[in-house]
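User: I want to check something. If I give you two sequences, will you return the structure for each one separately, not as a complex?

Assistant: Yes, each is folded on its own. Here is the first sequence with its structure:
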Amino acid sequence: MASAERRPRVRRETIPGFLGHSAILLASCVADVCRAIEDLARQGLGQRAFISRAALHVRQSVPFDVCSWLTYDPDVVLPTNGYDTGETKTFEVRLRYCANEQLEEDVHKFRDLALAVVPVGVQDRTRQSAQGASRRFRELLEPGGMAAELRAALVVDGGCWGSLTLERSRGGPSFSPAEVRAVADISTALAVGLARASFARPAAVADVPDGPGVLVVDAHGGIVSASEAAAGWLDVLRGTVIGPQSAVPVPVVAVAARTRAVGQTRLRVRTGDGHWLTLH
């Protein structure tokens, strides 16, 4: 008769009082989450399916109130798609986040995290004095009821394929060093999944507009005018966007912010039906 296997000891850290439950981080749990994400990456999923399923695994190791994902064109490190769980960000708020990322000095920029040994950063009220006042924290996170932010760049083989932002509301704990390690441990697996999902087999090809389009966006993020082709391409992009359908898709927000900052900007976006668009 086979003897019963002895269960390995696991290290656990507990954060009490987080929204009525404890966030228990187990070393074995993080390893399980990483393996589950690696399995997802091998399934040939598109971005929508991969992110939706991966978010469930991330929550197993690091609880959050709001989770935001961006996928990137690694050549220019600009977002091509976005996904929110929890609070839905308006176009104006997305534009403000893009402006902060592209134009303003702040802590834990995704470009900086992508070059860091540990591509994860945390900020909260306690860290404000130590890290320097963060405009993003003061003008976007706190007014939105958030008290802590964890940001991670998702990098593999030197390419940044996306980013992950976890937020916690006022009244809960900040993110612990163990949770930072947990996200760092799974970040490469997430990056591999996003990279593969960017080239997944497309769905059936749909009708697409004929030729380039011209779109005019004002300083407040509103659409001033759109040619017939541009309106058609907007519909294609809206069908590609993950999460809530916004008036202006994430890649348009990103190009608008970068263009306002430095002038001419180009961004490649792959739609759900396999077409590649160049926004500029």
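And separately, the second sequence with its own structure:
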Amino acid sequence: MKYRLFICTFLIIVCSQTIYANNYKERRDIINNILSDDSSRSNNKTIPSRKTLKKNTTNKNTNIIQTTTGADQVLLKTGINFYHNGMYNAALEKMKELKKKHSKSPFIDNANTWIGKILIKQYKYKDAITILSKIKPNSGAYPEALYTIALANEYQRNIINSISQYKQVSSQFPQHELADNALLKSGKLLLQINKGAQALEAAITIIKRYRDRENIDDAYFLLANIFEHDQHLKDLETARKVYKAFIKKAADGSSYFSRSPLLRRVKFNLKKLERTYFRFE
């Protein structure tokens, strides 16, 4: 009996190590491709940029807009403008007016999504989650509602729920304009709770699939931070290489890197890293 138990334990350990080795090699190959800039020549299919998605969404929504009276759409747009100008109470009133006067409007779920966002700005996180949870999975507004629920949970420090919901957005709706945001958010939170391997997967996925979106610089920064700080994946030489790759892309005129607000931090982190660990080279 003990012999069988020993054999089973041994096999489990061997299989686990084999899987880990294969995953490690796969990740290392991907990172080497990223650092050698081969990712731009890979066969990985990238997701369209946010600008392209918005254009396609506008075309799809034309029929919906034509079926409305126009008054509900005006209320929605006015409320959104109030929101972007920091007039949250006024924005909330417009969304409530839309729901009251146009109960059959196709924009009801959109209004609820914006109400959720407004409530978050007013620090009413539980109320935001309640209103957003009314939006059903078959609604076009559902991905954004789910993302906003994750945001509310993040602000409440319900980190596990927040990560789960961000992952749900990115996995179920990879074409959505918030998919890369959700991956980035989950990656940062995973690094905070010492889940570096999962954070690494999020960063790599953004670089492979969403390199035409503005979060690409954040993904490189996250990648470097993982190798600089994670207790299991710490690899200062790789972190250094990623920081250098970021700076090179900025110097080469890559727009998301040359105009990145992270560029100064990247240069500072690289200088600090080299001064601390590589000064005798």
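Because they were folded independently, the notes below concern the second chain alone. The radius of gyration is 23 Å. The CA atoms of residues 64 and 106 lie 7 Å apart.
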